[in-house]
Amino acid sequence: MSGYKTELLVIGSVLMAAVGQTLIKLGLTAHVAFSRTVLEWPLPLTTGVLIGLCVYGLGTVMWFAAVAQRNISYLYPLAGINYVLMGFIGHFLLHEGMGPLRWCGIFVMTSGIVLLSKTNTKESEC
Fold first, then answer.
1. Residue 30 CB partners (closer than 8 Å, separation 6+)
2. Which one of 13, 24, 81, 83 is separated from 7 by 20 to 30 angstroms, measured CA to CA?
3. For 35, what's the count of Cα atoms within 13 Å in the CB-facing half-sphere?
């Protein structure tokens, strides 16, 4: 299990980033005066936005810890899981439209992440 410490940090970072981004989105769109075309200043720092930024920040700290242990060329493709996760969150939680090409793109990204995760980890160690 200790051999997977870095991967667990990346997964934790990805999950924190996804939750943080979702909370930021919900916090911004819940703000009554928020315009969808122009981001207003000062930025509406709602509870959702602030909590989202904190969660996202914790994910960033986890990412720092992972990058300190492994090559970024190995870790960054694993962080691509965030794109896949946000596609599912956008569609199923936020009820955003997802056309067939976007689903195909998510499938291609997932396939690439799986292939890259199968690389020899000894090549990827610092």
1. 46, 48
2. 24
3. 6
User: How many other β-carbons are positioned within 10 Å of the β-carbon of residue 7?
Assistant: 16
As a whole number of angstroms, the distance between CA 16 and CA 56 comes to 6
DSSP 71-115: -HHHHHHHHTHHHHHHHHIIIIIS-----HHHHHHHHHHHHHHHH
Residue 67 CB coordination number (10 Å): 18
Per-residue pLDDT tens digits for 47-102 = 889 999 999 999 999 999 999 998 888 888 888 899 999 999 999 999 999 999 99
Nearest to 28 by CA among 98, 94, 86, 99: 94
| Token digits of residue 18 | 């996804």
| Structure-token pair, residue 63 | 């990412």
Q: Rounded to two decimals, what is the model's pTM?
A: 0.81
Which helix (H) or strand (E) is 51 found in, with range?
helix 47-67
